[in-house]
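Budget justification note: compute hours in this period were largely spent on complex prediction jobs such as the one shown. Inputs:
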Amino acid sequence: MVALVGGMGAPHRPVLLRETIELLQPEHGGLFVDGTLGLGGHSEAILEASGDARVIGIDRDSEALRWATERLARFGERFQSVHADFRDIARVLAELGADDVQGVLVDLGVSSLQFDSSERGFSFRHDAPLDMRMNAESDEETVAELLARLPEEEIARIIYEYGEERRSRRIARWIVERRERGEPITRTGELAELVARAVGHRKSDRMHPATRTFQALRIAVNRELEGLDAFVDDAIDLLKKDGRFVAISFHSLEDRIIKQALRRNAGQCMCPKRAPVCSCGARLVVEILTRRPIVPSESEIAENPRSRSAKLRACRKLDTGRNSGL
Ligand SMILES: C[S@@+](CC[C@H](N)C(=O)[O-])C[C@H]1O[C@@H](n2cnc3c(N)ncnc32)[C@H](O)[C@@H]1O
Ligand SMILES: [Zn+2]
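Corresponding output:
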């Protein structure tokens, strides 16, 4: 099935789908947890692979959950959706009384449902309230509130670190100057225009000048990097012997966290060289299946330009029982 998103006519294609399925091996059945259900593309392929495969699909976006639940209704009790943060995977599974997990998948970042929405503020292409919260029902801060509160240096740091934007200081200065004039930014259109004026728009630029700034603020407001490292440990703990963990990331900071967490779980100490004792939590509980990250083929990128920056890493649980130390 090809999902048409919000009537926009843009089909959502699950990124690195074939590679993900080859690594998860759902054809043998078992329980799979999709921590980032989104529109349910990966989950659908897992459920189609075997009549014995079951999926618990987690998403913190209730709109995505509604969408995916409808799409996957034909699988009956083999599919179950949960409105939660995947970083709470241990609690969610304990509450469902689910264990013996055969595979865990996270496909990080935003879905096209979110990005193409004309109301949720993820894109500079639509003028909308400057929100960008994945969980729009939470009482967490929106990007507009974040920009109204944070000191200038902190705004600059976020835009630099999460957006890899060289002109971050200048953008932060412009945002704060506007705020000090009593005109805080509340809409995506205002932010896109301010950034374009602050950094200038060269004809040779392939991206909109506000792309990096929007990405950075989205990562900050959703705290996308926090707790990712501990999540990898929790997901691995839940896996049964030979179970698979697969993570697809779209940002170098995210990929680095996943890479280091997998190495730690493969027994490699990640402590600074001169540390007298190991305190990073290294333990030999998995075998890494991707020495280098798997990236999309040229044809996938041509078909789905949003897959361009994807990196997939995976591991297999060893026969060690829980929390076996080194
Ligand atoms: C790239 S999309 C997933 C697309 C999905 N694999 C598919 O094939 O349709 C990422 C999804 O993860 C969700 N998400 C991101 N971070 C999350 C978190 N910490 N907890 C739960 N869901 C999260 C987003 O709301 C979004 O719907
Ligand atoms: Zn260590």
